[in-house]
Write a structure and sequence with these properties.
Mean pLDDT: 97
Structural class: alpha/beta
Strand order of the largest sheet: 3-4-5-10
Strand content: 5-15%
Largest sheet: 4 strands, parallel
Order of helices and strands: EEEHEHEEHEEEHEEHEHHH
Number of helices: 8
Number of strands: 12
Length: 274
């Protein structure tokens, strides 16, 4: 397997590295023909255009897009054919992902688009489950948004990888896939599960919804759900959430400095602690 990146982080063992910036590829790919392309770092149209101009490949092109392409005003659960548009929570991140999808499909109508919800698992450098693990390990009182009933939809990173493998093997007729666990989990149940995995008892306090949620918690106050029935036709044997979170916890204990932490605890201590 060949990877193309700037080599700013350790590489996965066993890969062949092409060290380059996708926006400066003159000559780097001139001798290369790839069996397939899995694009995990295209965030806007230019990311697609600059890579595609120098790329030759024979098999599928698979783009990891995002559920952020669906506007929060749309009908849920979102199906793949639902209208796309600005989401007021994700703003330009979502519209840029839309533009990346459109740029790719204009060049390769047979490309595959995957739209995951919140990803989790080993290697997750976003301060989501790691934040709750930190609170648990420090035996902190947890500040829960509102009554904790807001649903969250997750997808385990290894399940995403297995879905990519299925697409490469099967070449399905459908080319756009929502991905994710079919059933969401409430914020309260997710936090409780993280504390349980860390071996700690959960004590919590409910936070007034008038307080900005993203100042002290990992998620916007935005509940959404993707219809993943199309994905289920390719991959139905998903990793149980508890098992995936346990793997994430074990990884985090060994790699605490690889997560981009945010000052949630500082805000809590300065503004919410009684």
């Amino acid at each position: 397997m060949t990877v193309l990146n700037r080599n700013t982080r350790p590489q996965v063992p066993g890969v062949r590295l092409i060290q380059a910036d996708r926006h400066d590829l003159n000559g780097y790919l001139s001798e290369e023909i790839f069996d397939a392309v899995i694009d995990v770092t295209a965030y806007d149209a230019r990311d697609i255009e600059d890579l595609y101009a120098h790329l030759r490949y024979e098999g599928p092109y698979i783009l990891i897009s995002s559920s952020a392409v669906y506007p929060e005003t749309g009908i849920q659960p979102f199906v793949e054919e639902a209208p796309l548009g600005m989401n007021r929570y994700w703003k330009t991140y979502g519209t840029d992902k839309m533009a990346a999808e459109q740029a790719l499909l204009a060049r390769d109508p047979q490309a595959y688009i995957l739209r995951p919800p919140y990803l989790y698992g080993p290697g997750n450098n976003v301060y989501r489950e790691a934040f709750v693990f930190d609170c648990a390990l420090q035996e902190r009182l947890f500040y829960l948004p509102s009554d904790g009933s807001m649903p969250l939809q997750f997808f385990y990173i290894e399940d995403l990888c297995r879905l990519i493998e299925r697409i490469l093997d099967m070449r399905p007729a459908k080319h756009i896939y929502n991905t994710g666990n079919p059933e969401p989990i409430s914020v309260l149940d997710w936090v409780a599960l993280c504390y349980d995995i860390a071996g700690k008892k959960l004590s919590l306090i409910n936070v007034d919804p008038a307080i900005e949620q993203r100042a002290y918690f990992s998620f916007y106050p935005y509940a959404f759900q993707l219809d993943v029935s199309r994905q289920s036709q390719l991959l139905s044997d998903l990793t149980p959430l508890k098992e995936g979170l346990k793997q994430s916890f074990d990884w985090y204990l060994q790699h605490p400095d690889e997560v981009q932490k945010k000052p949630f605890m500082h805000f809590i201590d300065e503004n919410l602690c009684l």
